[in-house]
Amino acid sequence: MRVLVVEDERVLADAIATGLRREALAVDVAYDGAGALDRAGVNEYDVIVLDRDLPRVHGDEVCKRLVARRYPARIIMLTAAGELDDKVEGLSIGADDYLAKPFAFVELIARVRALGRRAAAPLPPVLERAGITLDPARREVQRDGRTVDLTRKEFAVLEVLLSADGAVVSSEQLLEKAWDEHIDPFTNVVRVTMMTLRKKLGDPPIIETVPGVGYRL
Question: How far apart are CA 53 and CA 188, in angstroms?
Answer without folding.
Answer: 39
